[in-house]
What does this fold into?
Amino acid sequence: MSENVIVPEVAEAAEVVETTAAKTYAVAADVNVRSGPGTSYDKVGRVSAGSRVTIHCQKPGETVTGPTGTSKLWDRIGSGRYISDTYVRTGSDGYVAPRC
It folds into this structure.
C-alpha cells in the first residue's frame, strides 16, 4: 500500500521540478502554432511578436527559416502546440530544453 502513496508523490515532485526549471523566451515575429513539428501540421493558434513562451521540450522536425536563422528544431509550448525555434529568441542554435 505504501507504494501507491510514494508513486504519486514522486510524480508530483517531478512535475514541480519541470515547472521550476522552465524558462520563458521572447517570440521574434508573429508565428503560427502547429499541432506537430512542421508546417504540414494543422494550425492550432498564433503567437504574436514580443509575446513570451515557455518551452517545455524540443524536438527535430521540418527545417524552417525564420527571423533568428534556419533550424529543424521545434519548441513544444503546450500540449499539441509547437512553434519553430527560429521564431524564438533563445540565445542558442541548439537545445535549451529537454528533448520531447
User: Anything to note?
Assistant: Residues 56 and 76 are 6 Å apart (CA to CA).
